[in-house]
Amino acid sequence: MNKTFLSTGQQEADNGESAAPLSWKMIWITSLRESEVGVTGRILDDLRPILSKHKVKICNYSPKNKDEFISIINNIKLGYNGKYNLIIHLDTHGDSNDGLFITPSGEFIDWDELGNSFRTINEITDNNLIVVSAICFGFHAIRSLSIDKLSPFDYLIGPEQTTSSGEIEDNIISFYEEFLETNDIYTARLKLSKWKLYSCTDFFRETLIRYIKDNCFGSGGKKRIERLISETVSTLGYTPSNLGKFRRVAKKFVKNPNQSLINKYAPVFLSKKGHGLKIAPLISEAKARLKK
Asked: Are 280 and 287 in contact (CB under 8 A)?
């Protein structure tokens, strides 16, 4: 498990070696009632000295409607120059079904659309976008995940259920302080213990391990072999002499997942973070789980 974010957010020097880690830029998007912005003000007052210490630039936005939110996303893309990693912090409200709430206009941005917006930014950052979804049901932004598309973010952290302004105020500063000090989002996430953390690399590995376990070995593998044999027989016709050949080919195909499985999906879902990912450790883990 890769626990250090900045190790994947480095530029490559002209000689092919890793250059110094990129700096950070934070995009803070607020859409709250006037009576609620006092909490945001106090958080930012405490956060700015920490950001300054680590030379993190912060830009604040307060969209009045959905169109303005989309315009902010477009401006982030247009202004990105590749010289920094991005954190987008959402300081709004959220609904489990309807998505992110834009308070002044009363509009929602559904979770799929929100994720797709982040995907366009994550693409230009080479999959180096962190989203801190500090809103009720903020973790639901993972609904936009698709293994045959780029992940919408490198990391997403947020609550799966409701949260409160008090919980956020009590914990978000220590989260950012820990993260910027250690560059370790897994350790920093412990400061927000009730929230969930998504990592695109962890998700990809786990998805393939489960696929291999459920479809290549054990009872799942046997069912898949029989299904392949049935499909082949119906296509090519059945004779006693070729059934054994069908079975041998099907077993070899099913029980020997290879690097092509990673090569097909990793460059799409992980972008450059898919480089060097090997199938052998995933197969070993899948087999180990079968024995449990």
From this structure: no
Contact between 93 and 133 under an 8 Å Cβ cutoff? The reply is no
Both tokens assigned to 215: 């479809």
pTM for this model (two decimals): 0.84
- Each residue's pLDDT tens digit, 115-161: 999 999 999 999 999 999 999 999 999 999 998 899 999 999 999 99
* Radius of gyration for the chain, computed over Cα atoms and rounded to the nearest angstrom: 23
Architecture of the domain spanning 5-194: 3-Layer(aba) Sandwich (3.40)
Q: Which two tokens stand for residue 62?
A: 């307060």
For the chain, the domains span: 5-194, 204-290
Residue 89 in tokens: 């912090």
Q: % helix / strand / coil in the chain, to the nearest 5?
A: 55, 15, 25
Helix (H) or strand (E) holding 112: helix 111-124
Structure tokens at 175: 């989260």
- What is the β-pairing status of strands 155-158 and 129-133? parallel
CB 27 within 8 A of CB 88: yes
